[in-house]
């Protein structure tokens, strides 16, 4: 057989490490070229990795929860083509093409091309580093040979290797320090801050189940006997499951991944670009009427139509009338770079933090195309599948705080952009209307607030005010778009 080792590939965007979130395969599984075998979290998104070879999974070289560098060996595959076993301690450079076996065609990994350069690898945490092995007959113990021949019905921990040249023995003592659990259960324990070694297993063959973890978590909180690992970080999404005041007096949540990247970007933006924010309150009753008509139209029956769609279209038209808003500040060259295209960012709150994917070339889209793009962008973000490329290159962003019932806010500009629009909640309120004869009357109307924060280094008050006024004019009367469009 020939053993091939797959290294963590370079995800791009300058990212140098990733956290192992979930294994989708286990030792003994059969995989095909481009099967998804692993889910990782980078500083920008969740990414599923395909395998570039077909064969049988031999070993999972990293554990769920580990953060590893690009280039670290993560999985080994037996391609079944024969030949000497490749030393696992000599990983290929990320992006380097593995030499195919004689007579076999070389597989290409979808989504990852060759990339020059090498990255240093570091030792895996909590496990023995891969070592070069002798021929198969001498490398395996009798226990390993039996385990390899038997069918596996449940995910199991790979048997411990005997590194000394001593003869094989009939039985090997079970490995200590790595409890048996499926990847989703390991992830749940990690999220709850629970050491699996302290959980009593109830599953077959000593496997820890999801119920074991949740029962342990609730028991530790209620009885007040939490271990040091139990009192570790608990994400906000899971902390709400525990009664307030029932657990530890303080909880700590590690800041990493998407949330860490967002925090760093927002701090950099807030203390680099001088922010100015302006507000306007408008009657959007006609926009709401347009939304109702579009929902009933044949063309829009398969897409979600909301006031956000109208605002997105209005923003594109307002930028065309005020192109100076769609620019960025080049500090190195001391230049203002105006962009004659619109990559429209939509801020999305996800379980892993706030992300801002953007719709490329939104200025060239019809209303229907824009609706389809927003729907796809939102669905992908909620699933945590947004790719780094989808979050780069934005020119202006909309943050929709209205979905939380919030009237308005002073948003921080997304790095690399010059302005961000805040869309508040739409409420029915009393509003003064002037009829054709100049008479005023009070009526119940749909009212909202728009706010725009902009970089005062390149956008002055006049330009920012004209942009906001144009945006409000279209939201107040969408027919205005026929004149400006």
From TrEMBL:
Residue ranges of every copy of the Peripheral subunit-binding (PSBD) domain listed in the record: 180-217
EC number per UniProt: 2.3.1.-
Cofactor: (R)-lipoate
This protein's UniProt keywords: Acyltransferase, Lipoyl, Pyruvate, Transferase
PROSITE patterns: BIOTINYL_LIPOYL, PSBD
CDD domains noted in UniProt: lipoyl_domain
Domain Lipoyl-binding: 3-78
Pfam families, alphabetized: 2-oxoacid_dh, Biotin_lipoyl, E3_binding
Enzyme class (EC, first level): transferase
PANTHER family, A to Z: DIHYDROLIPOAMIDE ACETYLTRANSFERASE COMPONENT OF PYRUVATE DEHYDROGENASE COMPLEX, LIPOAMIDE ACYLTRANSFERASE COMPONENT OF BRANCHED-CHAIN ALPHA-KETO ACID DEHYDROGENASE COMPLEX, MITOCHONDRIAL
Protein name: Dihydrolipoamide acetyltransferase component of pyruvate dehydrogenase complex
Gene source species: Terrabacter tumescens
